[in-house]
Design goal:
With about 400 residues, the chain is of the alpha+beta class. It has 10 helices and 19 strands.
């Protein structure tokens, strides 16, 4: 494969509209294929780290995300991803600004990262905001896919995967899936949806349940849910890392996590990540968690029990009570991210075809259905043994949804 710095003339020609995106293929020698809500995408990248991260982010394969689709057909789209030195990406971005016609269209990417679409002969071209504290990045939209130009740092490993997740998310919303601020796990094949604000204990509880006998981990922080007539609601993970602080890891019995070699760098030792509610957290993919702890992963599950947790600092308390349908509906609505997600803020790639009203209607229907499922308010302390918490949830699950 030619050196990536030799790709600059081809990238210039691409931005000028004088060559097709396939002219970049000599620099994109790594390949993987994913299926995102029915859309098959070939991913061509200049680094093996980028394609490996795509496969690992979307593992295990689910009804919405499949990193190993069995297909010999031509892809529906192609995403090319080139990682270049920071100075070269910044210089290309500056040339885009000079060549662009018309006014830029501002958007917000993942976690509110500011960017803007510019019109070039190559097609709509997105640049991240040069005044923001983020690395420069360029995304060119073609009729048959995208070209992503990123800096050759840790983010370059993840950017293509993040954009693919964005595509799958918006297509899933069009298909009636609704995103909730929730984690999820299973016990003996029965799905437990854990819904609540940040810091409520969702991740901790999901990991504790999945480590129990008969348990499996489904999702962290974002969970997609859909409903069908005469069937229980189904949940699928939104692919993403599990974010944990040191206090949670210690309580789960994994004090050695600081020695783990992960895709994302570990927080510095002089931060607050070793405490409960620390702002700095360890980022670990579900597949990395499985490899290091042996915790089983599951791709999807029925929603058999909904838990609204509240974790309390420095206590050993454990309280459980059912949540009535009306209050449960309100608690669910407060954590519904479709169509207004506070992390995946905008459909910045323009994937959705549904109106906001239609998406809101999907959300209302899913929330109504979920509010009719067995629900539980769970209050537990940071010093409460997770074995006791897990046993209490299992007893509730056995009482309300007996094993089949």
């Amino acid at each position: 494969m030619p050196a990536t710095d030799q790709a600059i003339p081809a990238l210039d020609a691409l931005l000028d509209g004088t060559v097709e995106a396939a002219a970049l293929d000599p620099w994109c020698g790594e390949k993987t294929t994913v299926r995102l809500s029915g859309l098959t995408v070939d991913v061509l990248a200049s680094t093996s780290a980028a394609t490996a991260y795509v496969r690992r982010l979307f593992t295990p394969a689910s009804p919405l995300w499949n990193p190993n689709p069995a297909t010999t057909a031509d892809p529906d789209a192609t995403m090319r991803c080139l990682a270049l030195p920071h100075a070269q990406v910044a210089a290309l971005a500056e040339r885009v600004r000079h060549r662009a016609t018309g006014a830029p269209s501002p958007v917000l990417m993942h976690v509110h990262a500011p960017a803007a679409w510019h019109q070039l002969p190559a097609g709509p071209t997105l640049l991240t905001d040069p005044d923001a504290d983020i690395a420069p990045q360029i995304v060119v939209r073609h009729p048959d896919g995208y070209t992503v130009i990123t800096c050759d740092d840790t983010d370059a490993t993840m950017n293509a995967a993040r954009h693919l997740r964005e595509i799958g998310y918006r297509r899933a919303e069009d298909d009636g899936w609704v995103c909730l601020h929730a984690s999820a796990a299973t016990l003996d094949g029965r799905g437990i949806l854990i819904v609540g604000d940040s810091g409520a204990g969702k991740s901790s509880l999901a990991l504790a349940l999945s480590a129990a006998q008969g348990g499996a981990f489904l999702s962290n922080d974002r969970t997609m849910v859909t409903t069908e007539a005469d069937a229980a609601p189904r949940a699928v993970a939104m692919p993403g890392p599990i974010r944990l602080n040191g206090g949670t890891l210690q309580a789960l019995g994994f004090e050695n996590a600081r020695q783990w070699n992960l895709t994302r760098p570990k927080p510095a030792t002089d931060t607050d990540w070793q405490t409960f509610h620390g702002a700095s957290k360890l980022h670990i993919l579900p597949v990395e968690w499985h490899e290091r702890t042996g915790t089983p992963l599951t791709p999807d599950a029925t929603v058999d029990l909904i838990v609204f947790p509240q974790i309390v600092q420095d206590t050993e308390e454990l309280q459980l009570q059912p949540a009535r349908s009306g209050p449960a509906r309100e608690l669910l609505a407060a954590q519904c991210m479709s169509p207004g997600d506070d992390v995946y803020v905008q459909d910045w790639l323009g994937i959705r075809t549904s109106t906001t009203d239609r998406l809101a209607g999907h959300g209302a229907h899913v929330l109504d259905t979920l509010a009719g499922r067995p629900t539980l308010r769970l209050r537990f302390g940071t010093r409460t043994p997770y074995a006791a918490v897990t046993a209490a949830v299992r007893a509730t699950l056995d009482d309300r949804t007996p094993r089949t």
